[in-house]
Backbone:
C-alpha cells in the first residue's frame, strides 16, 4: 500500500542504501543462543573481505565481549536463513553475503 | 438576565460566534491539508470540547499551576533538595526524561500549532491552540525544574543536541517525526489518541509517582502540573476519534488502521519507560507489568475499546504481543541499556540484591529463569575488575529504531528477526508489528535515519567510538558504569559526615 | 486483569496535595455510592463503576467557599472514561456505549 501523501510521486531513496558505503556493505551477525548479547551486531565490511579476515578483524573482537568466547569457535553458520559452509579464503560477496545480510552462528 | 454567561455560552461565543466562513477565497485553499487523507467531515460544528475552555479561564488556571510549581522549585533550591533524593542513581530516570521526553513536548508544541492553523472547525482549532501553548509550558517547566539537578549531576547538559543525535533517542524522535509528517488527522490520532489517551498514563503516572517516592518534589510537581493539562489533551484525543467516527462510516477503516499503526509505534516507544520503572527507580512504585495491567489492560482494553466497539473499532492489531511481552519487556530493555551504556547519557549498573529480590517477587515466572543469570555473570565480570559491554554496534529495527532485542512470542530466548526486501534492498524488523507498519508505507520508512547506519557512513563525528560520543555532546562521567562514576563519587562525598564547607 | 468486569468502571487520578484536593475526593465519595479510593505516592486514584460525578455544591459545602468546576483542573492528573458533561454545576465521567 503506498503512502497517502499530499503530493504525487512520493518517492525518496533509502538512507541506508549500499552505494553510500562505497565498496563496503553492512552485515548483521547474530550469536544464536547467547543471552549475554542483547542483539545482533551490525558491521561495515568490504564486499571483497575474505571470510577469515571478517571473522578475525570484526566478529572475534565483538564476540569477545563475552569473556567465555573462544575466538574462531563459531559453528553452524547460516546466511539469510540458509546453512552456510564458508570457505575462509573467499570474499563476503563471493559467499553470497549482501548488503544487510544476516549471518548467524552458534558457539 | 444573569450578569454572567454560563460556561457553555462563553465557550460558544468564543468558538462559534467568532468564526466565519471565507467567501472570497475558496475554503479548500484556506484549509488545504484536511482532504487528502480520505477523511470525510460533514459538520465541523458537531465537535464538542467538554472542558469548554475560554481564553480567560485558560490563562487563569495555567498561571496558577505555574505559580505553584515555581514555589516548589525555589524551596527545593534553597533547601539543597537534591541531597534528599533516595539515591543519585534515581536521576538516571530524569536524564532519560530530559533527553527523550522534554524534546517531545517541544515537538508537540509545534505539532499542535500546525493543527491549530489547519483544522477547518473552530472547536478543534482552539483546543489545539491551547494544547500547543501547554506543550511549550511543559518544555519550559521541565527545563527549569531539571536545571536544578544539572548544576550537580551529569547527563542533562546537552539534551537538545543529544535528542537529535544519540542512538536511543532516535526512538522518540522518529516516532514524533513520523506523526508530524503525516496528514493532520493521522497525526491527531497518533499523538492525541494513541500517545495521549492510550499510553500517556504508562509514561507519566509511574514517572511522577516515582519522583514523589524518591524525594524528587520538583519533578513530581511539574509532572502532575503537566499531567493536569494532559487530561485535557486526552479529552482532545477521545473527542477527535469519536467525532471522526461519527462523521462518516468511511472514516472507520482509516481510523482503525491508524490505531493499529500508532498503538504499535507507541508501545515500542514506551519500552524505554518499562525499563525505567523496573530498573531506574531506587524506591519502586509499581512494576511495569502491574502498571501495564492497570493502565492498559483494565482501563483501555476493558474500558475504552469496549466503548469504541459501538463504532466498529476493534482493539489494536498486535496488542496480544504486547500483553505477552509484559513479563519480559523491561528486563530485556534494561539489559540492553546496561551493555550499551558506554554510549548513553546515563549510567547503569547491576541491580543490587535487594533490587533483584523485588524483581523476582514482581516477575516470579521470568526473572530467575531468564534474566538473573545474565546479571550474575555481569556482576562476576565486574568483581573481577571488568565491565560487560557490547563491543560493537547493534542491529536496529527499521521502524521503531530500537536495537533488535525483542524475542519471538512464546519463545523468550530467541531473538525475533524479520526481513523484507523492498526495491532490491533488505530491511530489518524487530517484530511482526514493525514489519506490518513498514509494509503499509515502505516509501516512508526507507528514509529512516538509523543511528548505526549513519555512524558507519562516517557522518556522526568520525569512525571511532570516542569521536561519536564527542559528537553526541557527551562528557566525562555522562556514560557507562554507575559504580565509581562522577555522580556516584560526588553523592558519596556529599553524604559523608564532613563538616560544612569542607 | 484481562478478565472483563461486568460494569465498565471509570476513574480519575488526583494530586495528593492540598486541602482542596482532599475535599474534592471527599465530595466524590459523598456523591458516588461505590467508589474505590487507592493511594500511590503523590497520587490518589478514585474509581467508580459506570459513572463518576463531581458536584460543585458538594465541593463548596466541604470547602466552605465558592468553587468553580474549572478549578477541578488544578487537582486532576488523569482520568479514564469519557467526560460526558462539564458545566457550571457538575462534571460527569462515563463511557458512552
Residues:
Amino acid at each position: 500500500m503506498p503512502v497517502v501523501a499530499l503530493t504525487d510521486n512520493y518517492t525518496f531513496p533509502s538512507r541506508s542504501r549500499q552505494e553510500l558505503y562505497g565498496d563496503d556493505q553492512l552485515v548483521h551477525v547474530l550469536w544464536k543462543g547467547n543471552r549475554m548479547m542483547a542483539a545482533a551486531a551490525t558491521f561495515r565490511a568490504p564486499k571483497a573481505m575474505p571470510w577469515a579476515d571478517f571473522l578475525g578483524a570484526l566478529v572475534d573482537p565483538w564476540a569477545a565481549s563475552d569473556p567465555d568466547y573462544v575466538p574462531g569457535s563459531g559453528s553452524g553458520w547460516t546466511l539469510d536463513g540458509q546453512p552456510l559452509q564458508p570457505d575462509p579464503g573467499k570474499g563476503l560477496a563471493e559467499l553470497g553475503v549482501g548488503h544487510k545480510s544476516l549471518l548467524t552462528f552458534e558457539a | 438576565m444573569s450578569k454572567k454567561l454560563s460556561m457553555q455560552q462563553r465557550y460558544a461565543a468564543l468558538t462559534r460566534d467568532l468564526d466565519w466562513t471565507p467567501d472570497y477565497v475558496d475554503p479548500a485553499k484556506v484549509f488545504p491539508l484536511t482532504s487528502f487523507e480520505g477523511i470525510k467531515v460533514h459538520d465541523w460544528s458537531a465537535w464538542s470540547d467538554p472542558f469548554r475552555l475560554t481564553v480567560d479561564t485558560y490563562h487563569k488556571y495555567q498561571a496558577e499551576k505555574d505559580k505553584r510549581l515555581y514555589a516548589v522549585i525555589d524551596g527545593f533550591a534553597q533547601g539543597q533538595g537534591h541531597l534528599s533524593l533516595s539515591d543519585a542513581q534515581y536521576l538516571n530516570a530524569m536524564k532519560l526524561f530530559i533527553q527523550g521526553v522534554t524534546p517531545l513536548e517541544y515537538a508537540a508544541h509545534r505539532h499542535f500549532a500546525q493543527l491549530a492553523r489547519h483544522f477547518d472547525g473552530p472547536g478543534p482549532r482552539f483546543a489545539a491552540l491551547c494544547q500547543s501553548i501547554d506543550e511549550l509550558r511543559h518544555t519550559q517547566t521541565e527545563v527549569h525544574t531539571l536545571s536544578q539537578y544539572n548544576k550537580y549531576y551529569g547527563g542533562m547538559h546537552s539534551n537538545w543536541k543529544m535528542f537529535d543525535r544519540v542512538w536511543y533517542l532516535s526512538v522518540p524522535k522518529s516516532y514524533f517525526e513520523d506523526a508530524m509528517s503525516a496528514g493532520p488527522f493521522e497525526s491527531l490520532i497518533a499523538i492525541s489518541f494513541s500517545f495521549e489517551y492510550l499510553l500517556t498514563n504508562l509514561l507519566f503516572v509511574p514517572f511522577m509517582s516515582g519522583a514523589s517516592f524518591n524525594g524528587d518534589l520538583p519533578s513530581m510537581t511539574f509532572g502532575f502540573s503537566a499531567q493536569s493539562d494532559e487530561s485535557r489533551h486526552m479529552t482532545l484525543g477521545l473527542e477527535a476519534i469519536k467525532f471522526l467516527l461519527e462523521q462518516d462510516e468511511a472514516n472507520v477503516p482509516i481510523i482503525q488502521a491508524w490505531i493499529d499503526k500508532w498503538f504499535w509505534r507507541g508501545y515500542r516507544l514506551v519500552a524505554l519507560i518499562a525499563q525505567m520503572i523496573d530498573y531506574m527507580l531506587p524506591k519502586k512504585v509499581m512494576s511495569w507489568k502491574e502498571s501495564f495491567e492497570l493502565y492498559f489492560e483494565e482501563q483501555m482494553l476493558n474500558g475504552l475499546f469496549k466503548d469504541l466497539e459501538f463504532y466498529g473499532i476493534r482493539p489494536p492489531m498486535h496488542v496480544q504481543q504486547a500483553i505477552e511481552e509484559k513479563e519480559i519487556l523491561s528486563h530485556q530493555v534494561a539489559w540492553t541499556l546496561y551493555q550499551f551504556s558506554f554510549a548513553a547519557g546515563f549510567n547503569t549498573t547491576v541491580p543490587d540484591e535487594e533490587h533483584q529480590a523485588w524483581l523476582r517477587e514482581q516477575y516470579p515466572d521470568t526473572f530467575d529463569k531468564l534474566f538473573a543469570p545474565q546479571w550474575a555473570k555481569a556482576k562476576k565480570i565486574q568483581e573481577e575488575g571488568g565491565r560487560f559491554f557490547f563491543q560493537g554496534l547493534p542491529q536496529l529495527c527499521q521502524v521503531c529504531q530500537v536495537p533488535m532485542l525483542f524475542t519471538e512470542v512464546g519463545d523468550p530466548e530467541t531473538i525475533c528477526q524479520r526481513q523484507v526486501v523492498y526495491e532490491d534492498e533488505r530491511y530489518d524488523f524487530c517484530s511482526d508489528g514493525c514489519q506490518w507498519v513498514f509494509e503499509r508505507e515502505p516509501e516512508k520508512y526507507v528514509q529512516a535515519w538509523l543511528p548505526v547506519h549513519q555512524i558507519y557512513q562516517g557522518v556522526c563525528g568520525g569512525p571511532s567510538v570516542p569521536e561519536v560520543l564527542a559528537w553526541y555532546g557527551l562528557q566525562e562521567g555522562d556514560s557507562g558504569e554507575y559504580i565509581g562514576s562522577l555522580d556516584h563519587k560526588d553523592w558519596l562525598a556529599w553524604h559523608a559526615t564532613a563538616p560544612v564547607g569542607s | 486483569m484481562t478478565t472483563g468486569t461486568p460494569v465498565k468502571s471509570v476513574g480519575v487520578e488526583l494530586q495528593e496535595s492540598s486541602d482542596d484536593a482532599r475535599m474534592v475526593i471527599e465530595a466524590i465519595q459523598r456523591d458516588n455510592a461505590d467508589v474505590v479510593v487507592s493511594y500511590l505516592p503523590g497520587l490518589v486514584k478514585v474509581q467508580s463503576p459506570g459513572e463518576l460525578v463531581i458536584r460543585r455544591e458538594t465541593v463548596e459545602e466541604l470547602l466552605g467557599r465558592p468553587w468553580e468546576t474549572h478549578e477541578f483542573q488544578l487537582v486532576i492528573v488523569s482520568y479514564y472514561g469519557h467526560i460526558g458533561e462539564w458545566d457550571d454545576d457538575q462534571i460527569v465521567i462515563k463511557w458512552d456505549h
Observations:
- The mean pLDDT of chain A is 96.
- DSSP finds one helix and five strands in chain A.
- The beta strands of chain A are 24-31, 41-46, 75-79, 82-83, 101-106.
